[in-house]
Amino acid sequence: MPPAQFQSDGEIVAPSGASLSEAEYAPAEAYSPEQARRRREYSVWDPRSAPGTYLLLAINIAVYLWMVAHGVSPKDPTENDLLRYGANVTGLVLHGQWYRLLTATFVHVGLLHLATNMWCLWNLGILGEPLIGPYGIVAVYMITGIAGNLLSMSWDVVIVIWYHDPRALFEVGAGASGAVFGIAGILIVLLSNRRLPFPWEELRRLRSMVVKFALINLVIGLSTIFINVGIRIDNSAHIGGFVSGLALGVPLVPRMTAGRERYLGRQKLTFAVACLVLALAGYWVANLL
What we know:
Layout: E1 6-8, H1 33-41, H2 51-69, H3 79-84, E2 88-89, H4 90-94, H5 100-103, H6 111-163, E3 172-174, H7 177-190, H8 200-223, H9 235-249, H10 260-286
Parallel strand pairs: 1-3
Antiparallel strand pairs: 2-3
Helix pairs in contact: 2-6, 6-7, 6-9, 6-10, 7-8, 7-9, 8-9
């Protein structure tokens, strides 16, 4: 097997602006009445205000601490360390280890990689969870994270087919930023809904902040193709996560203000269809080689 190369999802720049953490921002259609009350009463630093977001943060941090506790370097883990704890490698996925498309979204290449991704996840999660609920934020994280890694895997397969370079199958990828881009993508769509019970100017301002976050980080990632900055950024994972997030948001918009049951029903249908599409796409890619 050729030596693996590190390819993180990238250390991304956090969104700026205090409005990303306004506690009163909680549409009733996404949260249950009890959760909406907690959102109003508790600080955004309290996990009870956004349980889905804090659950994702906890899993990512727990995986990192588990790795360090078992002898993995906190700053510079080896590719074997990353593989042992679930990082993504196209060659292994194509040989049946499909779980890596998900587990890789919880594995990070050192403390700085973890910290930057978690800060971005927290900011976007605090903003997004009231729009899609705690279960929704977890589902979007997983679906878009898998979609990003699947696109990355597809690109590796294309490289092998076109350039006959098998080394692409053994590059190691890890990180949550594909899923973070997915959350940004769905927020851009959902914040475009003028029927939400908030002033349009405020919604437009919040959406503009998320758009700037996505564009800045996409430009940074793409620039590393031409400029060596010392890290490898998986642009395919970013783009796949972002585009899948946009796609998930489109069918949700018409039901956002139609009542909690209808909205959650549309969510379940949307997420189920997305999972089916990902499964079919994975099957197709697996049969290209």
